[in-house]
Amino acid sequence: MYALCDVNSMYASCEKVFDASIRKKPVVVLTNNDGCICAACGIAKQMGIGKKFVPFFEVRDQLEAAGAVIRSSNYELYADLSEKLMAVCSRFAPHHHVYSIDEIFLFYGKTSTYVPPEGWQQHATNIRRTVWKETRLPIGVGMGKTPTLAKAANHAAKRIEGFNGIAVINSESVRKQVLAKMKVGDVWGIGRRIAARLNDMGILNALQLANAKPGIIRKEFSVLVESTVYELNGVVKLNWDEVRAPKKEIYSTRSFGQRIMDAEQLKYALSTHAEIAAAKLRKQNSMAKAMTIFAASSPHDPMGYYRKSIFHHFAAPTNDTRLFMQACSAAMDKIFKDGIRFYRCGVGLLDISDKSNVQFDMFNPTNIDSELMQCMDKINNKYGRGAVHLAGRGIEQKFAMRREFLSPQYTTRARDFPKLWCV
Ligand SMILES: [Mg+2]
User: Looking at residues 9-27, what average pLDDT do you find?
Assistant: First the structure.
């Protein structure tokens, strides 16, 4: 079973955590330099104000007339509350994956027969209540057999009447009910253009997509869309590292195969995450102006729980892996602590904007998209991730994923080549 926990209007909700006086008011958050609206709370949305990406100056009078509370983006606050959210949620399952600043997947293991003693519905309720109690952030919880179904359930939890923040897809009837009420464009991984083409083929809702023939979908679209069809039917196809990054922030994070107690290995791990996130950032033609770097022990560790996150602001937006790695190195002093058995770490790239809209800093002329990065991406796209990498992430990574059950690498590793004896 997978769960997806997702904060309702994250930025606006974060603004309400420490200022209870605005909890019942419409709150609108502005982007970088107060240019556009980037988030609005539920109350504001209901009032019809706070439409995303509308330039602030155009609606300023309207917002003021409606008594809206206006805030500039406070990424330091959002990143820190995000880390708290992830820490709370990750206590509930043996595995997790941070997908964005306000979304975390939980994974309960491959055995489909496992059910928590309190039942899935109650379990989801417990997560939601605990998060509210400990962070004052309102979340929706969706559960399903695959990440895509968990995402669909989360959509239902928030948008489909009758679910009230929690939806568990654990039967065929609920699966069909949820998918039938969901527009195909709302399915995870189905962008606007693909949705339009699916509509032309007569596929309007998620259930129709689930019932489509995978082979045809693959031929008309791509392997990715085909995977979505399988996932909607309960067959897991997604690999976290290949999951498309959300537009607004990019996270790379992982729990380790074994605990790390060594500063150098932790730095290598963080640098590797910086590298993965940076490549995703460049792939979507974006730049980031801020970064969060975090590491933690396991919440189940008998030695006690430790977590630390560092926020780093860049002088100008960048997409250069080297700068992200430098930030990781600089944060090490504050993050690493002797005697802590580190269990997970990661980075998040925040305050992302499109490369074409970026305003550069005239005092930081070197901080621009470099040919070196393009060259690295080209080589890695051709020969596989990590074919070339910066030395800063280390050559020998002891923290690599636990893969005890891995089959031999018959074709790519001399030691594992099949041997023949001729007698
Ligand atoms: Mg959200």
Answer: 92
